[in-house]
Amino acid sequence: MILDAEVFERDNQVFMSKVCPTHGECEELYFGSYEMYKKFSTYWMDGKGAHSPNVMIDKCSCPNNCGLCSNHLSHSGLANMIVTNRCDLTCWYCFFYVKKGLEGAYMYEPDHTQIRGMMKTLRAERPIPGNSMQITGGEPMLREDIADVIKIMKEEGVDHIQMNTNGIRHAMDPEAAREVRLAGCNNLYLSFDGVTARTNPKNHWEIPYALDSCRKTGTTVVFVPTVIKSINDHELGGIIRYAQKNMDVVHAVNFQPVSLTGRMGKSEREKYRITVPDCVQRIEEQTNGEVTVDDWFPVPSCMPLTNVIEAFSSKPKYELSIHFACGAGTYIFEDADTKKFVPLTKFCDIQGMLELFEDKAEEIRSGKNKYFTMLEVVRKLKGFVDTKKQPAGLDLAKMFGNILMKRSFDSVGSWHVKGLFLGMMHFQDKYNEDLERLQRCDIHYVTPDLRIVPFCAFNVIPEWYRDRIQKKYSITVEEWEEREGVKLEDGLYRGLMRRGAGDELAAGCAKSQMFHDAAQATM
User: Fold this and answer.
1) How far apart are CA 120 and CA 110, in angstroms?
2) How far apart are CA 375 and CA 1, in angstroms?
3) Membrane-spanning residues where (predicted)?
4) In the chain, helix, strand, coil percent, each to 5?
5) From residue 33, how far is each of 78, 294, 435 by CA, in Å?
6) Per residue in 190-212, pLDDT tens?
7) What is the pLDDT averaged over residues 237-261?
8) In this structure, is the dihedral angle defined by the CA atoms of residues 459, 465, 466 and 468, taken in order, positive or negative?
9) Considering Cα of 270, then 271, then 273, then 274, what sign does the dihedral take?
C-alpha cells in the first residue's frame, strides 16, 4: 500500500520513516550523507515528461497505473527489454530469474512479433523517440536467436543497443560474441562484482576471456558491480583499477548499490544496505584520494548542457532529468606519466560551465540572437579549463564546442579515448521507495502489452507490474521443457573455466591474476 513518509536528517545521514497501520513503523537509511544530499538537491529539475502517454489519467495516481502515464516527468533515457527470464547462474542476491519448482514460476521469452511491437512502442514515444535499448534477462545470451532479436531492434530504428550479461557465453563462445556484435550490439553491460573469486564467484575466471572477445569484436564494456555492504564494498577501488588496466575496451564502471528485496529484518538490512554516498566515500579511500567525494555530481547536473542545445536548435533533445538522489557520476582520466587518475574536476570548473550553459539558454529563450549567443559560449569555454592540468591528448573546450555547434552528443565519444566514466545508480526497493524519485525515473521497461514502465515500479512492485504482465505472455516451466526437449537446470553453467583453479584461487586469495592486475595499477 502507499504510505506517507518523512525524510529527515540525523547524524549527517538521511533517513525515511513511514508507519504501516498493520505492521507498524519502518525506518530506513535513504542517503548516507546529508551534506551530499544538500549539494545534489540543487540540481533538482523536472523533465519533459511523456507527450504521448500510453496511460491517460487526469489525476496522478502513482504508482498504481504505470505505463507511461501523463504525469511522468522524464522520457525514456534507457529502455530495458527482458528477452528471457532463464539464467545460467543462480546468484543469491538476484531479484529475477526463473526457478523451477517455486510456486508461481513461469517461463517468459517474447517472440519476434512481440519484440517488434515493443520496439515500435518505444520509438513512438514523444517528444523524444526511445533510442537507447538494453537487452536484459535473465541471461540474454541463452537465447539462440539473440542475434535476430538485435536485428529487429536495429530495423526499428534504435541506434544504441547494450546487452546486460554475465559474459560467460562471450568467454566460452567467441563466435557467438562476434554474431551479436555484427547484429548491432554496441556495448556489454557486464556484471563484475569484485577482483577476487570470493567477492565475484559468478564470473571471476571468465571475465578476462570475455574482455578478449570484446577486444576482437570491437565491443565496448561497462563494468557493473552490485555493491553489497560487508560483502564486496572493500573492493570498489580494485574494480576501478582493473578497469584502468583494460581501458582499451572498458569505458565505464557503473556501481549499483544493492536493492534489498524480500522480507528482511532491520538488522539484516543494516548489514547489507549501502547508499550512493557510502560508495563514493569508499572509492575515495580505496583510490588513495585520487577520486574524491567532491569529484561526483548527480545525474541531472548535465541538464544545463541539454537546455542550451535545445534552445539553440528549437527542438526537444535527449535529457537526463532523474531525481538527484538516484545516481551520480564523474569522469576520470589517466595521467600518461604517473598512471594516476585525474578527475574532470581537477582541471575544469564544472559548476561555472554549467551556470554559463543555463544563463545562455535563458538568453536564447528570451529572444537574444542564438548564433551570437552560442559563439559567445564557445569563446568562453576555454576560460573554465586549466590546460596545464588537462591530460595530454584531451581538448575539453573543443569537445564541448563541437557538442554545442553540432547540436548533438556524438562528440562525447572522444571522452572515452583516454577517460573512464564512473557512475552510481541506486535502484529502489520496498523499504526506501520514494514516489518523487519514481515519477522522474528515466530507466524504463517495455512490455508485451505495449506499456513503458519505470524500473522502480516494474521490479519493486512485481505483483503489479513485472510478474503480473509477464505471466500473461508466459508458459509453465514444464511446458517449456516439454517443448524444447531439455530440462531448465541443463542450462546452468557448470564452471568449466574454474576446473584446476586450485583451492587458493577458489577462495579468492591474492594469487588471483585479476587481483594482481588491480594492485599493479596503483604502482
Assistant:
1) 15
2) 53
3) none
4) 40, 15, 45
5) 27, 12, 20
6) 999 999 999 999 999 999 999 99
7) 96
8) positive
9) positive
